Amino acid sequence: MTPPFHFVPNPRDVEGWHFRNADNTGPNAPGEKNVNAPGEAREFIFSPEVGLTINAPRAGRPSSAEEIDAVRAFGRDKLVILAHKLASLEPGTQARFAWMKFLVELTWAL
Predict the structure, then answer these.
(1) Can you tell me whether residue 8 is helix, strand or coil?
(2) β partners of residue 58
(3) In principle, which of 25, 40, 52, 96 could form an S-S bond with 81, CB 3.0–4.6 Å?
(4) Paired residues of 78 in beta bridges
(5) Are 22 and 34 in contact (CB under 8 A)?
(6) Torsions phi, psi of 28, nearest 5?
(7) Rounded to two decimals, what is the model's pTM?
């Protein structure tokens, strides 16, 4: 469970095109072709209650601020992409990862 909830892409989704510009002609950089995607460092929040009592499929309502705070209080993690190689770099296509080296740090309440 990681905000933003209603906009794409979410930091949980790590895809090669996040690191290329809109027409896949170069790296993603500030300017008119920027794809507004998360970069190398991404933070997440988690709890075993997500999907059970918080943000459950049958809830029929969005998670409350208190529920999001409870998830954040339970667990956080950080993913840092240390190195990667992209494939499918032809203009007009969507880049994908050939490989990725990353570091993950998990912190949670006991």
Answers:
(1) coil
(2) none
(3) 40
(4) 43, 105
(5) yes
(6) -70, 125
(7) 0.82
β-partners of residue 43 are 78
Distance in angstroms (rounded) separating the CA atoms of residues 38 and 14: 8
Q: How far apart are CA 42 and CA 32, in angstroms?
A: 23
How many Å apart are CA 41 and CA 16, to the nearest integer?
Answer: 14
Domain ranges within the chain, ordered by starting residue: 16-108
Judged on CB neighbours under 10 Å (0-12, 13-18, 19+), 61 is: exposed
What single letter denotes the amino acid at residue 80? V
pLDDT tens sequence for the chain (110 residues):
777 676 678 888 899 999 999 999 999 999 999 999 999 999 999 998 888 888 777 777 788 889 999 999 999 999 999 999 999 999 999 999 999 999 999 999 87
Q: Quote the CA–CA distance of 66 and 77 in Å, as a whole number.
A: 19
